[in-house]
Amino acid sequence: MALCVLGFLRVSGQQFLTGKIYKANSTEYLVSVSIHNITQQRYDLSEEDGSYRIQVLPGDHVSFSSVGYKADTITITASMLTAAYPVYLDIRAQTLRAIRVGEFSNYQLDSMDRRKEYAWVYDHENTPHLARDRQGADGVGVTLNIFRNSSAAAKQRIKLSKRLEKEEEDYYVDSRYNKDYVTKITKLKGDSLADFMRRYRPSYEYCRKAANVDILVYINDSYKQYMKADN
Question: What are phi and psi for residue 75, nearest 5 degrees?
């Protein structure tokens, strides 16, 4: 696929669909939603505040998709281009299942799904592969290879890939240091739980090296410090 069809280059006089993307029935923004102009084969991602912008023409078909949410496809009309067009994505039912403490298969599957979802950012190889040289408890993570060349589109890919790699690291920490696990160990709830998790959130590097028992000990030791600090 020619790089020019990726839709990164902004040319004056062209029309754009803009707006923000939200979780359905909520005011919560959705970050890094993949926006695909199917008609023109252009792509983009929603920003950290949920905003998006993609080049379109009336009649184009545009899809919005994100791992864990139902994809939504719309047909562009002229009226959509006159003001911000909000998009709401519904959560997929299967993502509401409880995740058992110490089980990371859900993370692994989501990680592979994200790699597929954003394949257009990284390279032309749509098949994700697993890195098995990790030392973390799950031993598996998606390797995100960056496709590099000198074009403006490739430079934009590199910028987006770095952003997605950081998000992937955050997802991994969340899988090892999740609310259910922390609550089970500390018995904290509500604002106290949120404050504790913010203060003592471990680094990605630590989580990759730590075994399950290390995470347990870390949370327990951090909880003792937390209680001393508040007394």
Answer: -105, 125
